[in-house]
Design brief:
two-stranded antiparallel ribbon, mainly alpha, fatty acid elongase activity, ELO_fam, 14 helices, globular, transmembrane, ELO_CS, Elongation of very long chain fatty acids protein
Length: 324
Amino acid sequence: MNVEITPNYSYIFDFENEFIHQDTRVWMVKNWTYVFYYCGIYMAVIFGGQHFMQNRPRFELRGLLAIWNSLLAMFSIMGACRTAPELVHVLRHYGLFHSVCVPSFIEHDRVSGFWTWLFVLSKLPELGDTVFIVLRKQPLIFLHWYHHITVLMYSWFSYTEYTASARWFIVMNYCVHSVMYSYYALRALNFKPPRSIAMLITTLQLTQMVVGCAINVWAHGFLQTAGKGSCNISEMNIKLSIAMYFSYFVLFARFFYKTYLSTNARKGKRSVTSTSNGSSSVSSAAAGHQYTSSKQSANGAISANLSMAAAAAAAQQNDKIKAQ
């Protein structure tokens, strides 16, 4: 391991020290078509599952959901702790150009390299987030499944190229997911974190998208000035990445506005809260209010009709008595 490029880790696990990045890259390149099969199966399962659950009662799954989110939270925290030191070390000692253009985080750092590989692989089981949405019959918004699919495909593609700028994306994602899945785990355990935490998570996600776009702009600039031989990132990767991050920014910004800033959100008529997997669910408070109001109106109309009928019957009876 090149100690001049890698940070001084206090402890290195055996499974990290035994990581051989060349073997994983060969496997990822050889099996790159698998990602399309996974995405196809994912789409069939979630939309087929929605159809299957349409006329069936929802599952609660709170215990399983708490375990699921807790495991993802612990994994993300560990990943952040094992990859962030490398990024900080490189920025301090080698600068921005190295952090964007030199893939030493895979080629020379077995700790960061191992957790980079796990990061890519983790995007596959994270698809399971959507299964909880389907089984619990929560609204499945476009942002949720679009984000899951594109991150999986882009991560796999970038690993096969050893995209140097990916170190930024990986560290940011690990850090945001550490907070996000911890929040979801607490919610699944019936804790009620303040609403400001949910706002913070979406703000962190928006910040992640802005930084992601900025990194791609810098990468493009470095490619033009230093040349392709000096910066290990392809033009195609930059185009795909900036399109992906910009689309995320637009979708998350729209979600943030509708959830926290819109008139309905401020009045509490249509509160949108993050679910266990990063999507959104519309609160039933508004629907319940509408149902109650309509029910009260219906009851009032029925009562009025009954009163009128009773009055008419009484009048008829009085007429009969008078006639007698």
